[in-house]
Design brief:
Blueprint: H1 2-17, H2 20-47, H3 53-85, H4 91-100, H5 102-117, E1 125-128, E2 131-138, E3 142-148, E4 154-162, H6 165-168, E5 172-173, E6 180-189, H7 195-210, H8 214-228, E7 238-245, E8 248-258, H9 262-328
Antiparallel strand pairs: 1-2, 1-5, 2-3, 3-4, 6-8, 7-8
Helix pairs in contact: 1-3, 2-3, 7-9
């Protein structure tokens, strides 16, 4: 450590003895070297195969912040003498700059608080002051987030907020539990709807979807309880009813899921819930159709019975008419009696009339028999 301090002291003395032009040249060299180191580190961590994306991003951020600190120290050594000579003359200007740059000072204090308390790190999912997303970059004065919508979708936009917000706003961290987290899905309903049935359907869908990892999530939560000395709820899905206002009731289900599949699991639960609603509607429609067919079949049985009775009644008069015609027919070999007012053919002085056309008696048309309805399969 003593050797490093003596090296920087020698560099400062040599630079102080040199001209301003050499100091400018040294400053340019330091900045160019810092830029090359930063780009080399970025290229190295982007092409590195080992480690997760969060670990590589964290390492790159640490390297870049370290380079920035080293550059700042070297510039102070290079220009320390000149700054000391002008310190008294620019005291008023420094006070004005300090007042104008109080946000930068507060951001630096926020960075110091984050470094000591570590409310979040690169790769965590946080929400602060209405901004929600995954932490991408942590600088000395700001933090960059990859924005996430309320449903969990990544929008592709980024937030960059000053670290001074850490001093004034609470930070909500969604990835505190590690590999498994507890999420919730809510379905808004009207109070007049069947809220209890909706709660049962949503809970059943969550149980089916979360069954593969419920035991793993429970073991993970129990480990967290032992590590942080906190009491966590059960990992099984739980449904509850939350009244919002006089015209809205929310059915909410809380369920465990992997931290990197929060949105996908929530969508699967909602798909199962609405699929059950569709199946119940189809079943009710089929039952209504069966009942309608049965009612139509019972209604058509009465006309069929009345048709049979009328057919037998019609057959009886026909038989009586046939018997009457047979009894009134002339005996064999007897000449038919002429009709009243009609002359017999061949009689003297009578002109035979044209042959009378025979017309068969018209039988009444058959009544249409109602078709029997087809029973549904």
């Amino acid at each position: 450590m003593q050797a490093i301090l003596s090296f920087f002291t020698d560099v400062r003395d040599s630079v102080s003895a040199s001209s301003t032009l050499s100091q400018l040249f040294a400053t340019v060299v330091v900045l160019v070297a810092a830029m090359m180191v930063t780009r080399s580190a970025a290229k190295y961590y982007r092409g590195k195969d080992s480690g997760s994306t969060g670990e590589r991003r964290t390492a790159y951020t640490a390297v870049r912040n370290g380079v920035a600190v080293v550059v700042l120290i070297l510039l102070l050594f290079l220009w320390g003498g000149q700054l000391r000579h002008f310190a008294l003359s620019v005291a008023a200007l420094a006070a004005a700059v300090a007042i104008a740059s109080k946000e930068f000072v507060m951001s630096a204090l926020g960075s110091l608080m984050r470094a000591t308390q570590r409310p979040y790190a690169v790769g965590d999912i946080i929400e602060i002051n209405g901004m929600k997303g995954e932490v991408l970059i942590i600088d000395l004065f700001s933090t960059t987030l990859l924005e996430e919508a309320q449903s969990g979708y990544v929008t592709g936009r980024t937030y960059q907020f000053p670290n001074m917000l850490l001093l004034l706003n609470p930070v909500r961290k969604s990835s505190t539990m590690g590999s498994f987290v507890l999420e919730a899905v809510r379905v808004p309903l009207d109070p007049a709807d069947d809220v209890v049935s909706a709660e049962q359907r949503l809970l059943q869908s969550a149980v089916v979807v979360c069954e593969p990892w419920v035991q793993q999530a429970d073991a993970h939560f129990r480990r967290i309880e032992g590590a942080y000395l906190v009491a966590l709820p059960e990992s099984r899905p739980v449904a509850l009813i939350e009244p919002v206002d006089a015209k809205r009731v929310d059915v909410v289900v809380r369920f465990p899921c992997p931290s990197n599949r929060r949105m996908a699991v929530g969508q699967q639960i909602l798909n199962g819930y609405y699929a059950m609603i569709r199946e119940e509607r189809k079943a009710r429609s089929a039952a209504s159709a069966v009942a309608a067919n049965k009612a139509a079949g019972s209604a058509s049985a009465a006309p069929v019975a009345s048709t049979s009775a009328s057919t037998s009644a019609t057959a009886s008069p026909t038989a009586g008419n046939a018997a009457t015609s047979m009894s009134s027919a002339p005996a064999a070999g007897a000449a038919p009696a002429p009709a009243t007012g009609a002359a017999l053919p061949g009689s003297p002085g009578v002109t035979p009339s044209p042959a009378t056309t025979y017309t068969a008696p018209q039988t009444p048309p058959d009544r249409p028999v109602p078709l029997r309805p087809i029973d549904p399969v």
